[in-house]
């Protein structure tokens, strides 16, 4: 019997669950099964709709709507160069897209907060999504930097997370989600927002390609096997035991897969491999 084609919902729900299980930022919080299923459906719908969009502004609007499912009315995306140490005003950087309150945007740049933004410094050092509260409470964060968080809260941005999006050429982008409440983001919420940010970033990068159509890369059988077990939450050591190969060999094939998929992280490579239909979870 022919196997029915997989939708974005079925392709990504397993990956979302496994990534959430690996999240160790805080102790896991209760997340009702009904809510889990609802968010899986909403995320799958976001991916399916995103794949049909060819304009960055429309894609940003779609992501904004998706973020509202997690009580995040404000999101921001900015692509930075390796030498760029601060955010630049939207008018001088077309790669920046955000819907933060206008009053906060004016205040942010007038005060020169973009020159000392602690989030940017943290993004360069991290691979996964992180809560703003982590940066605020970090011993290396200065009082001037903490002032930025305090002022942001006065304008309504009381809690947030940021997702580092590193590129293979040393460039990187940052996606942030903010909410008006003081409560911390749940692990599963972070998982879905991080997956959505990565998918958004990959789509934006695809818009800049010369052909406009991304060619499906060719992975060897071993590369597929290694990236598959990576997507299933296995470490290189565990993958090596499963496949009967060394850790170095696993890392070699994973890096090759990342290079072919043009991603800078294993998570992004796994998402892209699933999107292309190269692996099934």
TrEMBL record:
GO molecular function, one term: DNA binding
Pfam families documented for this protein: Autoind_bind, GerE
Keyword Amino-acid biosynthesis: no
GO BP terms in the entry: regulation of DNA-templated transcription
Keywords: DNA-binding, Transcription, Transcription regulation
SMART domains reported for this sequence: HTH_LUXR
SUPFAM superfamilies recorded: C-terminal effector domain of the bipartite response regulators, Pheromone-binding domain of LuxR-like quorum-sensing transcription factors
Domain HTH luxR-type intervals: 212-277
PANTHER family: DNA-BINDING TRANSCRIPTIONAL ACTIVATOR DEVR_DOSR
Name used for this protein in its record: LuxR family quorum-sensing system transcriptional regulator CciR
């Amino acid at each position: 019997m022919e196997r029915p084609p997989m939708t974005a919902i079925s392709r990504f729900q397993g990956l979302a669950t496994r990534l959430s299980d690996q999240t160790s930022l805080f102790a896991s919080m209760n997340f009702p099964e009904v809510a889990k299923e609802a968010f899986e459906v909403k995320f799958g719908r976001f991916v399916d709709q995103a794949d049909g969009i060819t304009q960055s502004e429309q894609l940003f609007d779609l992501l904004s709507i998706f973020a509202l499912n997690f009580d995040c009315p404000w999101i921001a995306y900015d692509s930075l160069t390796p030498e760029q140490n601060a955010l630049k005003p939207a008018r001088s950087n077309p790669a920046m897209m955000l819907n933060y309150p206008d009053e906060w945007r004016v205040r942010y740049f007038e005060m020169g907060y973009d020159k000392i933004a602690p989030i940017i410094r943290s993004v360069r050092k991290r691979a996964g999504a992180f809560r703003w509260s982590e940066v605020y409470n970090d011993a290396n964060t200065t009082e001037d930097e903490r002032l930025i968080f305090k002022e942001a809260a006065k304008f309504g941005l009381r809690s947030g997370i940021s997702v580092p999006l590193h590129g293979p050429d040393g460039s990187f982008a940052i996606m942030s989600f903010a909410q008006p409440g003081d409560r911390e983001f749940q692990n599963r919420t972070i998982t879905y927002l991080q997956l959505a940010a990565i998918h958004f970033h990959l789509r934006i990068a695809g818009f800049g390609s010369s052909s406009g159509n991304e060619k499906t890369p060719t992975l060897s059988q071993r590369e597929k096997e290694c990236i598959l077990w990576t997507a299933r939450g296995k470490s290189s050591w565990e993958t090596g035991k499963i496949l009967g190969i060394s850790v170095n060999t696993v890392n070699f094939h994973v890096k090759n897969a990342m290079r072919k998929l043009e991603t800078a992280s294993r998570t992004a490579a796994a998402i892209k491999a699933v999107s292309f239909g190269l692996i099934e979870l």
